Amino acid sequence: MKIHLYLVLLSVATAWCEEMVCHEDYNFMRSWPSTKANSCNASHPHCIDTHEEIKRRCCGADATWDPEPVCSTVQYSFASSWRRQCPYGADPTSQFCIFFIRNTTYPFKCPYEEVLPFAEYVGITNRYNHLPTWVPAERNENQYGDGLYLYTEPSEMYGLALSNYTFEEPFGDKRCMIYHHTNGFEAVPCSTPHIGVCAYLALNYTTNSYCSRMFETCVSSDYPANSKCFCLSENLRDGQAELAEFLKPYQNYFRSLQRNCLIGLEQVDDEYIWISSKTKLNYTEWADDAIFGDSRKYGALTEKGWKLLRYKNETNCIIYQKDIHLEDCNLVLTYNSAKNQFFLEMSNPKAVVVSSNGTPLVFCFTDASSNELVKRLNLNGSNTFGPIHDGPGSYWCEAFVYPSVKVVKSNAVFLR
């Protein structure tokens, strides 16, 4: 009798409800993983109820599932879906977010300022688009000849000449450039419609944003160049800074966390809101083991997603947000005749945009060259340079600056 009772208890204790795949909702097949008797589990993807919380399903003592809960929506996990790393309208591919703008003239407007250089995205767009695309290069009106199509993008190519292109006569109206994936560059009128490409690194791959360069523990919160910074701190306390608000799914990339870090999410009057902006949730990113109720109402970010804390002081880690305040950057170029040397002074060097490899996008030019109308000079990372010896002409400098990511120019100095 004792042996029989033992076997019955053992069979109940080890009983499981088998995995169940349910009907398709929200373009997903929802599955309930195998679950031990007398316990509950979340579905994959997570079933979210009308209170914006994970709805779990329980396995009864007899190893049968309770009725399936009603889902208001499902949670599209950032961690499992690289598509969510990009803003709406972008085509996600690996670590890039790419916008294709159909039938546009040149120049065209990109949604955000800090676009990737043409050379970095042209190979990727080849796989998705086989039509000619605009190249960020053009020549000035009424200038004719070789070496006149100059790159205009915010990259280390700025001001360099594009060569090896074709064109159809007459040449006069061919001021812009397109790229054919089969036969290279072609000069065309700027008014003809082609595809414009705006490519960006996904935020979690961006290492040289203004925020990360200015503040050691900060990253950029969004794609616009003037976005707030998200910063990590173990010294500040709530009330000393504005807690970070992840208003968009792709902002949940601060994921190298081994602990709970307080964020600006709270439950107020049975609703979850971003507390500073009073914005209601329009998506969720709950961790699998998030606990609801039990006086838990303060949001925290972990490497697995959001959790809820009972008290704000449960953790000494917070993620806060801060605005970017930048003074204008002015460029002044002077010439020292005794040293035969130019010196470039920048009023706010921190406002200068840097390339993906950390090079400041500052460039100097002259029209004194005997074989180029405009020649870009080699600065080698210095703010001093000498004149060329071809002849008289003007010298000036240009830089891309935050937050506009547009060019500012210095004064011009003329040497005879």
Automatic annotation (TrEMBL):
Keywords: Signal. It comes from the Eukaryota. Residues 1-17 form the signal peptide. This is Uncharacterized protein. It comes from Acanthoscelides obtectus. The lineage of its organism: Eukaryota, Metazoa, Ecdysozoa, Arthropoda, Hexapoda.
